[in-house]
Automatic annotation (TrEMBL):
Sequence ranges assigned to domain Alpha-D-phosphohexomutase C-terminal in this UniProt record: 382-456
Keywords annotated in UniProt: Isomerase, Magnesium, Metal-binding, Phosphoprotein
UniProt keyword annotation of Transmembrane present: no
Keyword Isomerase: yes
Entries under PANTHER family matching the protein: PHOSPHOMANNOMUTASE
Protein name: Phosphomannomutase/phosphoglucomutase
Species this chain originates from: Streptomyces albidoflavus
Stated family: Belongs to the phosphohexose mutase family.
Entry cofactors: Mg(2+)
Domain of life: Bacteria
InterPro entries according to UniProt: A-D-PHexomutase_a/b/a-I, A-D-PHexomutase_a/b/a-I/II/III, A-D-PHexomutase_a/b/a-II, A-D-PHexomutase_a/b/a-III, A-D-PHexomutase_C, A-D-PHexomutase_C_sf, Alpha-D-phosphohexomutase_SF
Domain Alpha-D-phosphohexomutase alpha/beta/alpha, residue spans: 7-136, 163-262, 272-377
SUPFAM superfamilies: Phosphoglucomutase, C-terminal domain (SSF55957), Phosphoglucomutase, first 3 domains (SSF53738)
Length: 460
């Protein structure tokens, strides 16, 4: 295998096809580089490593652990876990961490999500570029690879599910919830491992869908952001007469919700609901982060509950940086990533799910009635268009609205045009020749007109 690290080292993680693009040998080099770049300079004598249920994950994870141990670090291997369980271990043990997962990607992929002690993110600007450069130098000149430390670090095993579950439960009061029937679609991912532990003794009847851990994803992609992957959950919620449905992605760090009618609930509405609960838990004070394509509902609800909304770019590195800079208590994204100050500013779908269950179970109304307060405006969802020139196309759209008397424009992340009655955001993909459009309006007729109008400009 000839490794091309430019193809697998992304903005926030490592991700590629196994064994075509990377393998256990390369994983061991990443372990050694992670030790040198992230752990040793920070004075960490140990790291924590976990993995998902993909067939290649145990071998890649253990190879990484050996690579780090050869640099003198002790390695705590926690085995099968969700990504937020790895973040829990990094936070609770105050150790840098590595999670082996490719999230919702197909079975032949695998990857590494890295963090510093306390679950602080590692991305291109915070160590990942340096790790890549070091690994590339060793690949180019194997003789330059570092000699093993004497003595090497130790490898040890640690079970964390019970401690992880107890910590999450300490952050949400679920003591008074009424009995609920819920359907949970784990998509053969890590939700099948974590849901029974976290929700096991609550007054819930859990109807499991695809809880068998299977990294080949035999039933559907473990990507609930794609509506086709919610179809089974929606049908089962209706068939069971359930109160709620939950869907987790492959590494179970994102959580999607469908109501008792089987209708998908916007992640913006979930963000607003959880924001209101977190503000209440913090005495009606605090900053809440939302990215710029979440609904108008989010900042409105935050202000109504005494909080301060803060708008940021799309992407977890921006959310986490803003969380740290502002001391925010909570942050949410349209992609169903939910970030909590009391979870080391990291994202955890399971904690968001506990908030949803506590909110529903703490009052008598169905979830569709409860969430209507937080879901106020019609939205397009994200619409992708393939374009030959992202910049030129964006400039054409900007020019079309330049003379609109009520419009304001900003370029925080792509192009956002806002009026009192509607807004849209058009932003480029970092990895594909795509422009992504999100539109929201105060009524559906305006939404449909504006969406059609902008798409015609983009696709002409």
């Amino acid at each position: 295998m000839t490794a091309d690290l430019s193809q697998i080292v992304k903005a926030y993680d490592v991700r590629g096809v196994v064994p075509d693009q990377w393998d256990e040998h390369l994983s061991a080099l990443f372990g050694a580089a992670f030790a040198q770049v992230t752990a040793v300079p920070a004075g960490s004598g140990a790291i924590v490593v976990g993995h998902d249920m993909r067939p290649s994950s145990p071998g890649l994870s253990h190879a990484f652990a050996r690579g780090a141990a050869e640099q003198g670090l002790d390695v705590v291997e926690i085995g099968l876990c969700s990504t937020d369980q790895l973040y829990y271990a990094s936070g609770a043990l105050d150790l840098p961490g590595a999670m082996f997962t490719a999230s919702h990607n197909p079975a032949q992929y695998n990857g590494i999500k890295l963090c510093r002690a306390g679950a602080a993110p590692v991305g291109q600007d915070t160590g990942l570029a340096d790790i890549r450069a070091l690994v590339e130098s060793w690949l180019d000149d194997p003789a330059s690879a570092p000699a093993p430390a004497a003595p090497p670090g130790t490898l040890s095993r640690r079970d964390t599910p019970a401690d992880y579950a107890a910590y999450l439960r300490s952050l949400v009061d679920v003591s008074g919830i009424r009995p609920l029937k819920i359907v949970v679609d784990a998509g053969n991912g890590m939700g099948g491992h974590t849901v029974p532990t976290v929700l096991g003794d609550l007054p819930l009847t859990v109807v499991p869908l695809y809880f068998e851990l299977d990294g080949t994803f035999p039933n559907h992609e473990a990507n609930p952001l794609d509506p086709k992957n919610l179809v089974d959950l929606q049908a089962r919620v209706r068939a069971e007469g359930a109160d709620l449905g939950l869907a987790f992605d492959g590494d179970a760090d994102r959580c999607f919700v469908v109501d008792e009618r089987g209708e998908p609930v916007s992640p913006s509405a979930v963000t607003a609901l959880v924001a209101a609960r977190e503000l209440s838990r913090n005495g009606g004070h605090g900053t809440v982060i939302h990215n710029l394509i979440t609904s108008w509902s989010v900042p409105e609800v935050v202000r109504e509950h005494g909080g301060t909304p803060a708008r940021t770019r799309v992407g977890h590195s921006f959310i986490k940086a803003e969380m740290a800079a502002t001391g925010a208590i909570f942050g949410g994204e349209h992609s169903a990533h939910y970030y909590f100050r009391d979870f080391w500013n990291a994202d955890t779908g399971m904690l968001a799910a506990l908030h949803v269950l506590a909110a529903l179970g703490g009052q008598p109304a169905p979830f569709s009635t409860l969430v209507a307060e937080y879901d106020r405006y019609p939205a397009s969802g994200e619409i992708n268009s393939t374009v030959t020139d992202q910049q030129a196309t964006t400039a054409r759209v900007r020019a079309a609205y330049a003379d609109h008397p009520a419009a304001t424009t900003d370029t925080l992340d792509g192009l956002t045009v806002t009026t009192p009655d509607w807004w849209f955001n058009l932003r480029p993909s970092n990895t594909e020749p795509l422009l992504r459009l999100n539109v929201e309006a105060r009524d559906r007729q305006t939404l449909e007109r504006l969406t059609t109008e902008v798409l015609e400009l983009v696709r002409q």
